[in-house]
Structures are given as C-alpha cells and as structure tokens.
Amino acid sequence: MSLISPPDQQRLRDAFAEMTNSVRLLFFTQALGCETCPEARQILDELPPLSDKITIEEVNFVLDADGVKRYGIDRVPSIALVGRDEAGVDRDSRIRFAGAPSGYEFSSLIHAVLLVGGRPSGLSEEQRQRLASVDRPIVMQVFTTPT
Amino acid sequence: MAFASSHITAVAVEATEFPDLARRYRVSAVPKTVVNEEHEILGALPPDAFIEQTLSAVSAAKTPVPTDSTQ
Fold this sequence. Notes:
Chain A is of the alpha+beta class. Chain A has one domain (about 5-130): Glutaredoxin, CATH 3.40.30. Chain A is built from 5 helices and 5 strands.
C-alpha cells in the first residue's frame, strides 16, 4: 500500500510533470545496523512511479567507498540529489538528506527534487549573484525533526 | 543556496535520528543551521537574512589575518 494518498499522488504527478531535468536520487544504505534505512527506501520508492524523470539508485555505504567519498556521505540513510539535463550531463546538486525523509523532511525532499528538476529557486537575481561570489567551501547542516 | 553556488553543500539532517550530531551541535530547537561546523543560524530566516548570516559567518571565520612580512 502506498504511503501517499491518491490525491497527494496526483498533486505530486502534476508538480513533477513540470520538470525539465531528470533527477537521480542516490540512496546510501547498508543492510545491517541501519534502523531507518528500510523506511527511507520505502519512502523513496513512492516517487519514481509518479514521474519518469525520477530514478532511485542504491549505493552500498559499506562496499562502495568511491561513491561514499565522492558525495561526501558519512552516515546512513543518506540521499544525494543529482540532476541530469536534457543532454544527459549530470550535475551534482550538493543537496543531501541525512535520515529517513519522513514528515516535514518529505516535503523538503519534494522541493529539492523539483528544484534539481529545473524549477526556479525563488531566489532573486541579486541573491543568486551574492551566492555565486562564494569562493570557499561552505557546508550547511540544517537540523530538522519530522514533526 | 547549494544550487546557486558550486561551493555550497546543503545537508538536511534529521535530528532525532542522529542524536550524536544533535548533541555535537547542541541542537535544542529546530530548524537550526550549522555553517561549516561552527556557526549557528537559529530558526527559519527570510532568504536575504539567511544568505547574509551565512556569508558573514564564513568570511569572519576564514579570512586570514593579514600579516606584514616587514615587521
């Protein structure tokens, strides 16, 4: 049974229909010792049926050291969002989720998917320019809770 | 913001799932944003204020102290 109600599924389908880029959700997981990995996977599995532009790719946190390092993942479950434009070129969004994306995190995930999928960010030109001037690495950890 | 700059990484962390991180960064209310592991932004701010606080936190932290080699 789906975790998402049929009306919400339709809303998501409509929203995803606007996407111009494909979005790959890299799901970092491990078989043992990860209590919320199955829940995270279950939530993610809800999305591809709603859009042919969304794919889930599972990455083994224990075995795939290259993938883990490349995307800077340090715990499971984690999700990395990678955009793929119409020419098939990948662009890492550098947007990550740590923990199962349930509750409020689910709507944050949907927003992130739509953003990577090509929806305007809502930032003004001036705000974008300020951010474009950043010349050193910044890692922003945004702590939230599901409720 | 991560989307607007190739230098910025944004991680949404589920605080209850990772109590070690919540403890390390003294998360007692959400949302709380930790910039480069040391600067805190509490609550949800409008975009201008959020960008401002992020950029000023980083420039304050990482700007090297000018040294004058002649002294």
